[in-house]
Design brief:
The structure holds three protein chains of three kinds. By secondary structure, chain A is an alpha/beta fold. In chain A, strand 5, helix 4 and strand 6 form a beta-alpha-beta unit. In chain A, helix 5 packs parallel to helix 6 and helix 10 packs across helix 11. The relative contact order of chain B is 0.17. Chain B has a two-stranded antiparallel ribbon. Chain C is mainly alpha-helical. In chain C, strand 1 and strand 2 form a beta hairpin. Classes of the chains: A alpha/beta, B mainly alpha, C mainly alpha. Chains in contact: A-B, A-C, B-C. Chains B and C meet through helix 5, helix 11 and helix 13 of B and helix 4, helix 9 and helix 11 of C.
Chain lengths: 438, 312, 283
């Protein structure tokens, strides 16, 4: 599954089996019946987008929205010929507002499908709403809580997620780290649901391979000063694994240099939140040589991605897309394909959900398909910060394909473990506890 | 028509409107109206200690949030029947109020403000950090509606439930503030020393007001958790307390009706404006500034001033 | 050796907090206004400084422009809005909250949602070797600046006519007015000064804390904690409070990581129980 540097072309995937001539002949024939179909013009299908557009998560929200819009515009806001109407609501990153907006989109505005969703609290709340009201939900935002696509009490047959599941990047990180020869890991992770989930899963995956986390520090969300944590990092570790999102990541990057840690040991940024493109431009060479694992990097050299990045830069003043943008793009793609497959007929929701789960297409972030729980199966990339054309960028140096939400475990093995992250924060340095079975 | 008769007619009309609302509006708006009622209760509860007793609290969300968490934990974790849990949640809010009041009442004015803020933030830190109990910032989903024999799962039925509960609570609050106890509170608001000199046990009055306010806030919190089927640490955060404060000030502190209207207005505005523009935060800010300039005693305050002048 | 690092961190962080809290405390001390827009002054000041630094490369110029611009805005807010509600805490709260909202949205609009970090000014962009560790020189600079500003403010309060008028105005505005002191002008000046201090805090904190949407609220909360601990209206309290909170926060996080979220709120609650008006507050 692991490969070397990304191949130039993943193999063009032909979506359209017919030649151009066949298509124009068919189109000419259709024109003869056009007046009839126009008389019964289709009501646009409404797609409700729930994203934080203000407050602390405004940027992921805006990026996801940009990606969504890009795809919808590309297909002319139509799915299989049926017009689409995109309605956007700001969830303000508050779960109660998110649910209120979900209701607004579905009950007042008649949205047939909901998409977006970034924050963890709002993801659980919207998931609940979707399940109770049988509204298809396509998560195209950062909401990475593993439970959403796992069998369990909150499992929702009306949900699919094209973005990520918290643990997949950690599994890739652990595997690559072990292959690199690292056995002892020091960890720093933000003390909130996402951070604990990420680092816990990393610790477990690493233990299973034969490594061990020897130290774990958990700065609070919004830590301004990493002064207490950085000098305390255990220097005997082979590498430092970090998960620090948002502004915390930016501060970490600066302070890691300030406190003399640069060059002392390799640093692996599990979800790439520290070596995130806007941070790279502000911190000089601080991030050079840092590794990260992610399902995307703007430097991916595939035709889909190069086209995507070029178009994105045109729309957004030359900025590079962050990973939320291809996610939004893929979400829109999945929705459009599914609507086209059922010809816009939402009377049988299970049929629509089946169509959603059956989507399969190439995308800027690689080949996308979904597992039986609606979770994406995609590629994971290990990246390294290198100088590219004079500025720093996340260059892909290894690829893992067909990574599903359980990898490297099988579903059965994954579910056989006793601890989960909600109770496992203190066990990350204890391999026997992490690998204990039920 | 006399002023009194006018008020009576207006009240009857409003009540009638509230009762037939679900027939007139689409389910989404009925849900919005439910939210407006819940926050009206929350704001009125704050008005009891703020407007009537003169104690400005920046930690009122503590009682709102703890009742919400109590009901969620009692049902989702402990498996208690939802009706029982609902009642217990109120008790939890009252108890928290009783526990916090002696600390808060050690200060007056700005130190009271700070202490109430501090206490609420400690509670928030617990909700956020004690992940094995509260799920941390993920929150607790799956909170069911209270089961008192009839199902409250539909938007309509829950609306009527909330209407009845909030209506009764409002009547109770009105009775409290017009009673001798309420009048004593107003006296304490004007001058503690004078009331003390007159023989009133000022501290006890303030304590009782505090606990009552906490209980009503808890009622609102429990209702909100059931409405959303969800509770998260935001219910306890200072922003929630500050919002309540704004609702009271906007509507008019010390009028009970004012905060209710302020709350309804703000809930409505937030929903309405945020669908119109992504700069809804700025629009709201401008509205707050303008309201302060034109109605420094709150919206109901201007009405009262106007009526006061007319009566002269 | 690690203890020295922790102490230095605590003091440096404390100095940052001082810059944030001093203005809030001053404004409250004189005018009894709890300025909820204080965090916005910090953030907007920081962003303005960032723009100037990126355009001109001069950190000093950034500091000056930020302080002056925000001081002007602060003066305008006091003169045209707050002044109408002297001693009316509720309208003041709603007003300053309204401005908080306005500035929050404005800064998101102008500077976007990504976290922005100011570049450390040239001469301080290195770290000193402290045993096997390194310590950033910039933080030492922060400690020096914080102490300098604290000294300047103290000298201003104790040894200048303006400072004396300020103390008189705090004690009794009526009498001060009767003595011919232009209390209105004093109010505007102090509000502007408080705003300027917050803006300076924003620019100086920029290289360490970074600027991001939500920093206004985070800062306001922290400043609140400091003035609660130190006591509203007291400069000495603001200094003592910020150092205490800074050091407790650092040690708390390093040695009691389980309670990281509490290291700020628990000392505050404990002190309030013992002394409800803070260490040096007046009651």
């Amino acid at each position: 599954m692991i490969e070397g540097p990304m191949p130039k072309n993943e193999g063009a995937w032909q979506p359209w089996p017919f030649s151009a001539q066949a298509v124009s002949a068919a189109a000419a024939a259709l024109l003869l019946v056009a007046p009839v179909s126009e008389a019964r013009a289709q009501e646009p299908i409404k797609i409700g987008v729930l994203l934080p557009l203000s407050g602390n998560f405004a940027v992921p929200g805006q990026q996801t929205l940009a990606g969504l819009k890009m795809y919808f515009d590309e297909v002319g806001n139509k799915a299989g010929g049926i017009p689409l109407e995109i309605l956007v609501e700001d969830t303000q990153t508050k779960p109660d507002v998110a649910v209120a907006k979900a209701r607004k989109l579905v009950e007042r505005d008649g949205a047939q499908v909901l998409t977006g969703v970034v924050g963890s609290g709002e993801s659980f709340a919207i998931n609940d709403y979707s399940r109770q009201n049988k509204v298809p939900l396509v998560i195209s935002g950062d909401a990475g809580q593993d439970e959403l696509t796992l069998p369990g009490p909150i499992a929702n047959p009306y949900l699919v997620r094209v973005t990520m599941s918290g643990r997949t990047a950690t599994a890739a990180a652990a595997d690559w780290a072990y292959k690199k020869g690292w056995r002892k890991a020091a960890m720093i992770g933000t003390d909130y649901a996402g951070g604990v989930d990420t680092n816990f899963e990393f610790a477990r995956a690493f233990c299973r391979l034969g490594g061990k986390v020897i130290q774990a520090q958990w700065p609070a969300f919004g830590t301004a000063d990493f002064g207490p944590y950085l000098p305390a990092v255990d220097r005997s570790a082979d590498a430092l694994f970090v998960f620090e999102p948002g502004a915390d990541g930016l501060r970490f990057l600066r302070q890691y240099v300030d406190f003399g840690l640069q060059g002392k040991m390799p640093v692996f940024d599990i979800w790439g939140t520290i070596v995130f493109e806007p941070n790279l431009t502000q911190t000089g060479d601080a991030a050079l040589g840092m590794y990260s694992s992610e399902f995307y990097t703007p430097l991916l050299k595939t035709p889909e991605n190069e086209r995507f990045v070029a178009e994105f830069r045109k729309r957004m003043n030359g900025e590079l897309p962050e990973h939320e943008a291809p996610n939004g793009y893929v979400g829109a793609h999945a929705i459009v394909d599914a609507i086209a497959a059922v010809k816009g007929d939402f009377s049988d929701k299970t049929k629509f959900m089946a169509a959603l789960k059956a989507v399969h297409f190439p995308s800027p972030k690689g080949e996308i398909k979904l597992d039986k729980y609606g979770m994406a199966i995609q590629s994971m990339f290990i990246r390294e910060v290198q100088k590219v054309d004079g500025s720093l960028g996340n260059v892909p140096i290894a690829t893992y394909r067909d990574v599903d939400q359980f990898w490297p475990f099988t579903e059965a093995e994954y579910e056989s473990y006793q601890l989960d992250y909600t109770h496992g924060k203190d066990a990350v340095t204890d391999c026997s506890k992490l690998l204990a079975k039920k | 028509m006399t002023f009194r008769a006018g008020v009576l007619v207006a009240t009857v009309l409003v009540l009638a409107l509230l009762l037939v609302l679900p027939e007139l509006l689409r389910p989404y708006y009925v849900g919005l109206a439910t939210r407006m009622l819940i926050f009206a209760l929350f704001a009125m509860s704050l008005d009891l200690i703020l407007g009537y007793t003169g104690l400005v609290s920046l930690g009122h969300a503590a009682y709102f949030g703890i009742a919400a968490y109590a009901i969620a934990l009692l049902v989702v974790r402990a498996g208690l029947p939802s009706g029982v849990a609902f009642v217990l949640a109120l008790a939890v809010a009252a108890l928290t109020g009783a526990l916090f009041a002696p600390f808060a009442l050690r200060g007056r004015g700005s130190s009271f403000l700070m202490i109430t803020f501090a206490l609420a933030q400690v509670l928030w830190s617990v909700a956020f950090g004690w992940r094995s109990l509260t799920n941390g910032d993920d929150g607790i989903p799956g909170v069911p509606r209270p089961d008192f024999g009839i199902s409250l799962d539909s938007t309509q039925s829950f609306y009527y439930f909330v209407l009845i509960v909030v209506g009764l609570a409002a009547l109770l609050l009105a009775a409290i503030v017009t009673s001798p106890f309420g009048r004593a509170l107003k006296g304490i608001r004007e001058s503690e020393s004078r009331m003390q000199a007159l023989g009133y046990d000022v501290w006890r009055h303030q304590f009782v007001a505090f606990v009552l306010a906490a209980s009503f806030a808890g009622l609102a919190g429990a209702l909100y958790a059931c409405f959303n089927h969800f509770v998260g640490p935001e219910y306890l955060f200072v922003i929630q307390s500050a919002e309540a404060l704004i609702m009271v000030i906007l509507g008019g502190a010390g009028t009970l009706l004012g905060p209710a209207i302020g709350a309804a207005l703000i809930v409505f505005l937030e929903d309405f404006v945020s669908s119109m523009t992504e700069h809804w935060v700025m629009v709201l800010g401008i509205i707050y500034v303008l309201v302060t300039l034109w109605a420094p005693r709150g919206l109901v305050g201007i009405v009262l001033d106007y009526c006061g002048r007319r009566l002269q | 050796m690690i203890w020295l690092i922790h102490i230095l961190n605590g003091v440096a962080y404390g100095m940052l907090l001082f810059l944030l809290a001093a203005g809030l405390s001053l404004i409250y001390g004189l005018m009894k206004i709890l300025n909820l827009t204080h965090g916005s002054f910090y953030l907007v000041g920081g962003y303005l400084g960032l723009t100037v630094v990126r355009a001109t490369g001069s950190f000093a110029l950034g500091l000056v422009v930020a302080a002056l611009a925000v001081a002007l805005v602060g003066a305008a807010i006091e003169r045209f809005f707050l002044r109408r509600f002297h001693l009316e805490e509720l309208p003041q709260a709603l007003l300053t909250f309204g401005f908080l909202f306005i500035f929050a949205d404005l800064s998101l609009w102008v500077w976007g949602g990504d976290a922005q970090m100011l570049a450390v000014p040239g001469p301080f962009a290195r770290s000193l070797s402290v045993g096997s560790f390194a310590y950033p020189v910039y933080r030492l600079f922060l400690i020096a600046v914080g102490l300098a500003i604290a000294t300047l403010l103290w000298w201003f309060q104790e040894h200048t006519r303006l400072g004396t008028m300020l103390r008189a105005g705090v004690d009794d505005a009526e009498i001060a007015r009767g003595l011919g002191i232009n209390v209105s002008f004093l109010f505007t000046l102090v509000f502007a000064l408080g705003a300027a201090l917050a803006a300076l805090g924003g620019v100086l904190a920029g290289p360490v804390l970074s600027l991001y949407p939500g920093a206004d609220l985070d800062t306001l909360i922290l400043a609140f904690v400091v003035v609660i601990v130190g006591g509203l209206g007291s400069l000495r309290g603001a200094l003592a409070g910020s150092l205490l909170v800074g050091i407790l926060d650092d040690f708390g996080k390093a040695f009691f990581p389980k309670f990281a979220l509490f290291t700020v709120f628990v000392p505050m609650a404990v002190i309030l129980v013992a002394r409800p008006s803070g260490l040096f507050g007046r009651r």
